[in-house]
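Intended use. Records like the one below are meant for learning the mapping from a protein sequence to its folded structure. Do not use them to infer anything beyond what is encoded.
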Amino acid sequence: MRPLKYIDGYTVPDDAYLALTLARNIAKGLGPLYGLEYTNGFQPLYVFLMAPIYWFYPNDIVTPVHLSLVMLALFDTATLFLIFKIVKRHSESPITPVIAAVAWMVNPYVMRTAANGMETSISLFLIALVVHTYDRYKSEWLLGNGAIAFAFGLLLGLAILARIDNGFLAGIIVAGIVFFAWREKIPAPLLIRSILLIGAGVFIAYFPWFLYSLHFTGDIIPVSGKAVRFLSLSAVDQKPTFSNWYLGMIIMAGGIIARHNLTLIGLLAALAYASRWLRPALRLKEFCSKVRHYDILLIFCLTLFFSYTFYVFGAWYFKRYLYPVALLLILYLSAIIDLYNSRFKKTGRIIFNGLVIIILMAGCLIDPALHDFYFGTETQTTGYMNLGLWAKKSFPDGTVIGSCQTGALGYFAGNHQIINLDGVVNRRCYEQLIQKRVIEYMRSVGIQYFVDWTGLYSFITKESRSFQADDLQFIYVITDFTSRNNEWMLWKVKP
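Structure written out for the chain above:
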C-alpha cells in the first residue's frame, strides 16, 4: 500500500507493466494488443485476472497496480496454507508445520516476489496445490475415481495457464502416475482411463486460450520464449559452447538460488551436519523417507533449472523462473526439523524450535533489500515508472518510440505509440531480429526515437546487418533518473 514511486524500483520489474498494459487493452476490447501487434507472449491467467480491474479503473494507472499486489498477496497467503497442510500430513510433531509456515512468512525472497506484479505467486500457488492434490489423491485416481482425475486435469491446465513451464510439471505427474500404477500393479485399463480423464481436464482448461491465441496471432507457440533465447544468445553470436555460455548460466542460476535462499540452505546444511550428534543419530535413510513425498517437486525444480540454463536462458529472469526451489527447500527443511523434534523431549523441542525461529527471523531482519522495500524512499535510481512518466511529457502526442524495455513506457506513456524491439511481445520484430533486419523494421513501422540502455543499443546495431553509424543519432543521456542504476539514452531514428 506504499506509494507506487517507492515500491516501483524495489520489487516491480518492467515486465509487470507489460502484463498490465495487455490487461488494460483486453479490458478496452482491443484484445492482446501491444503496440502495433497482437501477441501471445505473456502468461495468460494473470493477465485475464487483471483485465476486469481495468473495467472499473479505465483511466487510473496507479490503483490497478496496488490491486494486483493485493491479489498476489492473497495467492501467497493461500500458498502458505497449502505448505502448512502438506507438511502437517508428513510430520510427527504438530510444531513442524508451524515452523514451515514461519519459514515461508518471514522469507524476504517470498515477500519481494509476492509483490513483483507478475504471475509468479499465482503460479507457485497452483504448483503447491498440484503437489498437495497429487500427494493426497493419487491412489484414488488409479482406483477409478474419475471425478478426481478430471478435476486434477483442470487444475493442471490452470497451472499451465499461469506459467507455460508448468507443462513440465504435468508431464512429470503423468510419469509419476505410470510409475505408481506399475509399482502397485494397478490394472492397465484403470491407468489409461485416469490419464485420459486428466488429459481431458487439461484440454478443457487450456483449449480456450489455445483458440484465443490462434484467433489473434495465428500462432499457438508463445513468441516470448524464442525471443528471450535469441536475445540471450546474441551475446555469443548465437553460438554457445559449454565454456563460453552454459557453464556461466549454471553458475549464475546456482548463485541466484543460493543468494535468495541463503538462510534456508544454511539452516538445512547446519542441521544435516549436526544430526550426527543426535541420540540416536539421524540417518540419511530416514531423511530420504521423509522427503520422498516431494520427489515430483524435486524433479520439476531440476527440470526448470536445466531447461533455463541449457535452452531458454534469460538470466535476468532466473529469480522468477527458479522461484519454486524456495518451496522445495521449505519442505526439505521441514522434514529434517521434524526428525529433530522426534528425538527431543518437550523441553528440548521448545529450545530447538525457538532457536530455529530466531535464525529464520534473523535472516529476514538483516536483509537490506527487504528494509528498502518497506522503508526506502529512493525514487530516482531503481525503477522503471520514471521512464514512462518522462516519455509521456517529453514528446508530442502520438510520437512513435521504440525500445527493448517497453513495459513502463507502454503503461505510463499511453499518449504515444510504443513499439517493442526485443521481440518478446512482438513476433514481427522477432522475425526481423533473426534476419538481422531490425533497423529496417524500425523504419517500416515509423519509429522516430529509440530509448534504452547502452547494452541494448549494441544489441540493436548487432542484429541489423545493414546498420550505418548515422541510422541512430545520439541525442542525450537522460540525467533525471536511472533504472537499476543503468542510464537511459535517447537516439533519433534516421528516416
